[in-house]
Amino acid sequence: MKSPETPEHPVFSVVIPVWNEQEVLPVLHQRLVQTMDSTGERWEVIFINDGSKDRSLELLIALSQQDARVKVLNFSRNFGHQIAITAGFDYADGDAVIVMDADLQDPPEVLLRMIGKWREGYEVAYAVRTKREGETKFKLWTASAFYRLIRYIADVDIPLDAGDFRLMDRKVVLAMRRLREKNRFMRGLSSWVGFKQIAVEYERAARYAGETKYPFRKMLHLANNAITSFSHVPLQLAMYTGFVFAGIAGLGIVIAIVLRLLDMTL
Ligand code: UDP
Ligand code: MG
To answer: Which atom of ligand 1 has the smallest separation from the CA of 21?
Structure first.
């Protein structure tokens, strides 16, 4: 791969994980081209095909043949959203790297506001959802509870209601590349590495087409990774529970001995 110092390296890299998103890809590409061309800078988009079973890969390859700025990474199976983003970071060449979902819930137009913050000198611009369209009450409630719980118990400052939709300066991406944990919570890592961060508020649109790829089971898995990676609370809970039961057992032994001794003296 070419080094980022070459004159033709892109200013912006957009990283997009894709799992069975055939309905959204053509319109996503079109909206992205409109938005990114308006920056007047060189850019690339890296799609990571996360083991799609539909025609996503075929469509992505066709897009890359028409448009040289489109790059495709293809996974051998479904490894999950967080691993897909990680692979995107490993290959992104831009001075700034933007992560967004494929389903247009993260409107490409918000990218321009993030880019504005980067130009002002911020190194991470993360999108915060003020409103979410087209989600079930259950998803809204569980997501909101999760963000509040993780913020309360995490040892790093993870902002409320912020997903993976964000822009990062190359410096931040290089720092993130050095973190190779297998169970990843990318937005937590992005807070953990530090740097000058700013929120960009937006209203999250409904999914353009198709179904959510994050059923409750996957959300629980992500929440579990987030909590165990960024908080000592589960370990402390295990430790204190151990102390309490050891205490009760110790007391039991003392009571048993005392009763036995009383028995013997009576
Ligand atoms: N995705 C992925 N691998 C997965 C699950 C999701 O690459 O195992 C992608 C998906 O195609 C989308 C993004 O990750 O671009 C977020 O998924 P989704 O929009 O379904 O999540 P939601 O917005 O419902 O939380
Ligand atoms: Mg979505």
So the answer is: 11
